[in-house]
Specification:
The complex is a heterodimer of chains A (206) and B (242). With 206 residues, chain A is mainly alpha-helical. Chain A has one domain. Chain A contains eleven helices and two strands. Chain A has a two-stranded antiparallel ribbon with strand order 1-2. In chain A, a hairpin with a 2-residue loop joins strand 1 and strand 2. In chain B, the strands form three sheets. Chain B has a seven-stranded antiparallel β-sheet. Chain B has a two-stranded antiparallel ribbon with strand order 8-9. Chain B has a two-stranded parallel sheet with strand order 10-11. Chain B is built from six helices and eleven strands. Chain B has 242 residues and is α+β, with helices and mostly antiparallel strands. Chains A and B meet through helix 4 and helix 8 of A and helix 1 of B.
Chain lengths: 206, 242
Amino acid sequence: MADINFKLIKNPLSKENPITVQVLGICSALAVTAKLEPAVVMSLSVIAVVVLSNLIVSLLRKTIPSRIRIIVQLVIVSLLVILVDQVLKAFVYEVSKQLSVFVGLIITNCIVMGRLEAFAMSNKPFDSVLDGIGNGLGYSVILITVGFIRELFGSGTLWGYPIIPQSFYEMGYQNNSLMIMPPMALIIVGIIIWIQRSRNKDLCEN
Amino acid sequence: MFSNRYIFIYATVLVVFSALILTLAAVGLKPFQDKNIRVEKMQQLLGAVGVESDAKNAEELFNKYFTEQHAVNSKGEIIGSVVNGKQVKGDINPFALDIKKEMALVKANNPSASLPIYIFEKDGKKSYVVPVNGNGLWGGIWGNIAFAEDLNTIVGVNFDHKSETPGLGAEIATTSFQDQFKGKTIFDGDDFKSVEVIKRADKNNPHQVDAISGGTITSNGVSKMLQNCLKYYIPYFNSLKN
């Protein structure tokens, strides 16, 4: 208990990354990354949900009947997601409008359920929290990277502020509308996976 | 192994407990959420006439500039008025009207329909702001259209949406899209022409603005919304003109 197991935080950031290695949560990665700001808020919401649900499930793990464990996990995740949604609506209304349905869809984000099933059901609460933080961050890193690239090249802005100078547009530069389209998120994630695997041969399948 | 009895009780307790927490959260946070919605409506109305506001000063600015608010029926008769925050006619508070519901009523020729009109006054000049409501690609879209005193020229618009695609349809909520509407007119002589959102619009045509590339269905939704909603305000506009 006293030793913080840093591997639990570090591994999901690189060689056990939920998006690029476990290929979970792709759906939301493509839906909320057209702009940077929603990507960041979505990341924070997912971190909050995955950490808290990991904690609660881990605390309850010995009492949960295995036959209904998936439903129990789902109830806990839904409860947390609805709470997050209500809190966003009450205190950061602008952002909650941007995320609209995607906050609700955290319920179906495979990362959350995946971590509960794979980790929290069989590990102590403290380790589960670390695992939640790690996986939440691993998800965020990819989401924010994709959001950064898509907003910069798709809209010429970052966080809503214009980055590409007006003179570029006058010289004939154009924003790439393909960047805003959902398929581009998949292509960028694909490129990230490619770079990661070419640097880390352990991840390659034979 | 757990017995069936245990599983049954476990599930029941868990669900009831969760429901309790959610109820508490919903009730506790409702006042904050309602206030956000009220303030947002005020900000959108202010946005249509080009007054910048944030969540803190919206209420104050709204009460300062929107001194007259009316509810009109489909014949253009005023059936409820609030002036300087006081109900002076009828018992309908225009600000409390749900535009989505009222538009559905007026389209069904229901005589009880009443549409809100907000009159903005600054430096002796009046603008008439009317709300509109329609559908985009994924969900509802809505907005406010501000007209100059001639009740023909648009001085500003403001659109918002429930769940249009970020970067595509959602661009209707940006100023670069909305600014195109400034100076456009909805009448050609006495004929109602509305303003159309189309690809490769002619900049000099007073009834056209450029659509959003990749957001065709949302752009068409805006066209339809203007066409379908503004016409119900024409009787009131005519009664003011005469």
